[in-house]
Structures are given as C-alpha cells and as structure tokens.
Amino acid sequence: MSREEIIARLKTILLDTDERSAAALDACGEDAELTTDLGLNSVGMLFMVISIEESFGVVFENVAIGDFVTVRDVVDYLETRLKETGAL
Amino acid sequence: MKTPSREIWRKYTEAETFDRIVGFDSVAQMWSVRSKEFADSTAIVDQGESVSYSALDAEVARFRSRLGADMAKGTCVGLLIPNSLAFVRAFLAVVTLGGTAVILPAHLDEKAVFGCCMKFGIRKLVCVPETEERTAFAAGRVPGLEVIPAGDLPDTAAPAAEVGGSDPCVIMFTGGTTGKSKGCLLSNTAVMQGTVNGCYGYAEVFEQRYLLILPLSHVFGLIRNLLTSLYTGSALFICRNNKDMFRDIAVFRPTVLVMVPALAEMALSLSKKFGRNMLGEDLKTIICGAAPVAPYLVAAYKEIGIDLFPGYGLTESANLVSGNPESLRLPESVGIMYPDQEYRIEDGELWLKGLNMFDGYIGEEEESRTEGWFRTGDLVRVDEEGFLYITGRIKEIIVLPSGENVSPAEVEAHFNALDCVQDSQVFEAENDNGSVILALEVVPRMTALTAVPPEEVHSFVRGELEKVNRALPSFQQVSRIVIRDRDFDRTPSMKIARYKK
C-alpha cells in the first residue's frame, strides 16, 4: 500500500467524522493539524483511531492519541506499523 | 415540592430485586455488607487481573494500614491515580477509614497538584508510578505532605472506622454554575444516595457486568459506574484506554454501560460503518448522561435490542437528579426525579435540596445557593406526569458531548497569557456534521505585533495559539480558531458579550 493509498483511505474515514475535515485535508495536505485544521474534537480523534485500526487491521501501540498533531504524524505512524506487520 | 417516593420506581423492577435496593449511611457501611455478601464474585478486572470482593476487601484493609489506622477522620487524602484497580483500592481504603478522598484529575500538572494540596489541605497524596513525578513539586513545598505509592501494600491490615452519613466522603472537581473550577464536598449520605439512585428504573440491577470507560475523577464515573457496580455486586472491567473499548467489550461482554452521549453516538456510527454491533450481544442497558442525550439514540439503540436510559445530574447532587425509565415513550425527557429531593422552579431555573446534595465548595464563597436551595443553572420544565425536561442553560460552563465540563474562562486564560492576544472567547460551536466542538475567537494585540509584517499577523498569531492549544489537556483543546479584525461586542459593563448557543 502506497502512502497515497493510505491517505485516500484516511480521507474516507475523515469523511465519516466531519465532511469539512476531509475537505480541509485536500486543502492543507499532510501538514493539516487534526484539531484546528480538520476540526476534530477528542471524540472525533477517537473515532478516527478506532476506524483506522478496524480498516487497516493494525493496533496503535505505545502511543497516545494526543501524540498525533498533524495528518503527517498519523500517516507516518501507520506506515511504520504496516511495515512492522508486513502489510507494506 | 418533594420528588416522588421510591415506590414510583417499583414497577420497573421485579419485586424481589426492588426490595434488595436499600440505603446505607456510608460507603464504609455499604462496603462492609457487600464485600461479604458477594465475597466470591468478581469485583474488578483490570489489565487481565481479576479480583473478587473478598480479595479486594483484604487489599483495602492493607492499604488502610499503609494510610495509618490512626488517621484522623476527615483527613484529606489526594488521589492522583488514573482509572485502575489501584484507584479503587485506595479510594475504598480512604473512605472506609473515615478520610475524605480528594479526586484529582489524573492529567493535572505538578503545579496544579501543588495548588490542590494547598487549597484542600491534602495531608496524604496517593500516586502511581506514572503520576509520581508530578507529586514532587508539592512534596517539596507542602509542609508535612506524605506521598504514598498506591502499590505500597504492607502485610498488616487495619480495620475500617465507624463512618456516619454526615461525615465527609469525597471532594470532586466541578465547574460549578459559574464556570470556575471548584472542589465540591460530598458527604457519605450524598454519595450513597447517588449510588442507590443508580439502581432505579430498569429490570436487571444486581450482579451485572459493567465496563468502566468514564474517568473516575468525574462524578458519573465514580458514583454511577464504580460505586453502583460495587453496591450491586457486579463485576467492573476497567478500560484503560478508550481506543481499546471495543476490544475490551469483545473480551468482557458487559451487560451495562455507563456512557456519555458522544461515545454512544460514536459506537452507533462505528457499528454502522463496520456492519456489526460493536457493543456486543450481551449488552442490555446503557445509562447515558453527563451531557444532553439526542432523542434519536433511544430508538436507534432499541432497534439493536439495547435500552438506553437518559438521565440528568450534577456533581453537586452526587451525580443523579433524575433518570428516565420510559425513554422510548418520552425520549426527550431526562426522566423522573429520584427520591428524597425537593425542587422548585424559579424563573425557569431548577433549584434543588435533598439528601444527595453537596455540603459546599471548599474555600469558595457560596454563590450558588439561596436559602439552602442549590441553583442548578439549568432551565427546566416538568410535565403533568412528573417528567423533567432540560430546556436551556444559564450557567457559563460548557458541557461537551463527551461529558467533560469546560470552563471558558479557564481555557481563555491560557490564550490570554500570550503577548499577542488582547482578548479571547472560547465557546461551543458545531462542525459540519453537527458535532459539538470548542471554538476560539481572538482579538490580536496589535501593539505587540509591530515587528510582524501586517500580512503575516494572522498566521503568526495562529501559530502562537496553536502552540498553546497543543499543550492543553485534550478535552480543553479548541478545534477551530478565528482571528478577528475587530473587538468583540461588549456588554454595558464592557465585558465580552458571550456567544449563546
């Protein structure tokens, strides 16, 4: 799975939390901040993480949700986890 | 006017079960009875460790010994412990020894911990390894403060003390009605009243399986989730991280969940997205409160065989004021008011008295009581059947769908501390999907920005605000920032005219 594919799947998840956040992701790219640019509140962040775990079949370990500031942080972490699990 | 007697609740529960719902003067008395009655049943499951009621009682006795069997009644003992078996053990040890448990939110920084120790007269501070570092600042500055690791269990046991209903039990944090954080003192009578109220209005009460998702520093978590679970001989599975809640549900198969509306909505959305009931087939009951419950949730959950009961409560009322046993018929109501309260409605605002009410705020002037009545700050109406409806709010506090109370003034203070900020306003807004978020509007202090090119002022100020925002606890972080070009509208007294929802 390429980085672009990860971002595309992440976007479908964000669409389920807030349509505005998916549009903001298009506008800001990977530097978009999850809270102030994408407008995610604490429950939105939780929804995103649980959805990622379900969709990608990975478990977020040794990391707090608050550690993710930008979309890039999430994608970097996902890339690392997918490589570790052999899915990438 | 008095609220209905407990008999009004009888029809919702089988007679034999209903008659088991009895009062206790204190948490110590309740624990003495229940720890023996359910001795062999599982009390707590935490990180794979399952502890029976009798085993937990033995651990509690050992921790009482660590606290000191001669600890004076009413001694304030701070608990800086996230949700865990260690919290439950320490809490029960403190209150069965006649102490007052000061529940410190586990995210507090070291200076806030120090401030709480001074303000509440904390003499002993119980911590776990992950919070121990944040006790050092207070330990070095508060004379006589003893820091006690929660895992420090001596071989000796100390007996419980005689604890009465009027003895103080717990100090909880609340935004109160003015939006400023306060320590709210609840007596043993109030805490037990809240605990027992949690048993009314549904069929399956005793020996259930509960999952703990809410923080125990929130009254809904402490009283309705932990204490009602222990009172009913139920097993409580502690979910350490909310992101793992559905994995924990699959393992533990809870029958009752105590949730805030935002999580209930999220669970529904995820169930829909992934095509299966994420809450498991064993779940029968959701107790939903701490924030307004969207009426559609009741019907949506009924479709998958789960009864969702909205309720209404406050920290000052030991959590539970009312619960709705007829949520399917009247989904917009927060229910019938529980027994042993009195209420009146003044200019639409609910005023309360009763056994479940708090004893006061610690070290604060009492601004929210009139002639013994607590003014809730909530606007209500009561229908001809006695069902309560919340129609609005006059207090400044923001209650998020996650149940967390946010004081706008407290959050604004962090942003206002920046040189480049002249004034700010934090308020409740909605995103495009209708979810409630925190928003921030800021008026820049242009005199502090003369070195910044005019076209870069907004981006500079935004950058500074984002740095501050990231350092805040997640529930206080704003999700939208607007930099204003002109000042806020002002009231005649020149205060910011606050946005009303």
Topology of this protein?
The complex is a heterodimer of chains A (88) and B (501).
Chain A (H helix, E strand, L loop, with lengths): L2 H15 L1 H10 L13 H15 L14 H14 L4
Chain B lengths: L14 H5 L7 H11 L4 E5 L2 E4 H15 L8 E5 L4 H12 L3 E4 L6 H11 L1 E6 L1 H4 L3 H4 L6 E4 L18 E7 L7 E6 H10 L11 E4 L6 H13 L3 E4 L6 H8 L3 E4 L1 H14 L10 E4 L7 H8 L3 E6 L9 E2 L11 E3 L3 E6 L2 E6 L5 E2 L7 E2 L2 E10 L4 E7 L4 E2 L5 E2 L1 H9 L4 E10 L5 E9 L12 H15 L8 E4 L18
Parallel strand pairs in B: 1-10, 3-4, 3-5, 4-7, 5-6, 9-10, 9-11, 11-12, 12-13, 25-26
Antiparallel strand pairs in B: 1-2, 7-8, 8-18, 13-14, 14-15, 15-21, 16-17, 17-20, 19-20, 20-21, 22-23, 24-25
Helix pairs in contact in B: 2-3, 3-4, 8-9
The domain count of chain A comes to 1
The residue-averaged pLDDT of chain B reads 91
- CATH evolutionary superfamily of chain A: ACP-like
Q: What's the β-strand tally of chain B? A: 26
CA-CA gap between termini of chain B: 30 Å
Please explain how this structure is put together.
The complex is a heterodimer of chains A (88) and B (501). Chain A is built from 4 helices and no strands. Chain A has helices at 3-17, 19-28, 42-56, 71-84. In chain A, helix 1 packs antiparallel against helix 2 (19-28) and helix 1 crosses helix 3. Chain A starts with a helix and ends with a helix. In chain B, helix 2 runs antiparallel to helix 3 (53-67). Helix content of chain B is 28%, strand content 26%. Chain B has 501 residues and is an alpha/beta fold. Among the domains of chain B are: 186-354 and 372-398, 3-Layer(aba) Sandwich (Rossmann fold), CATH 3.40.50; 407-483, 2-Layer Sandwich (GMP Synthetase, Chain A, domain 3). In chain B, strands 1, 2, 9, 10, 11, 12, 13, 14, 15, 16, 17, 19, 20 and 21 form a 14-stranded mixed sheet that branches. In chain B, strands 6-5-3-4-7-8-18 form a 7-stranded mixed sheet, sandwiched between helices. Chain B has helices at 15-19, 27-37, 53-67, 85-96, 110-120, 129-132, 136-139, 188-197, 219-231, 245-252, 261-274, 296-303, 408-416, 457-471; strands at 42-46, 49-52, 76-80, 100-103, 122-127, 146-149, 168-174, 182-187, 209-212, 235-238, 256-259, 285-288, 307-312, 322-323, 335-337, 341-346, 349-354, 360-361, 369-370, 373-382, 387-393, 398-399, 405-406, 421-430, 436-444, 480-483. The A-B interface holds A 16-21, 33, 35-36, 39-47, 49-51, 53-54, 60, 65-66, 69 and B 242-243, 246, 262-263, 266, 269-270, 273-274, 400-402, 404, 431-433, 435-438, 462, 466, 469-470, 474-475, 477-481.
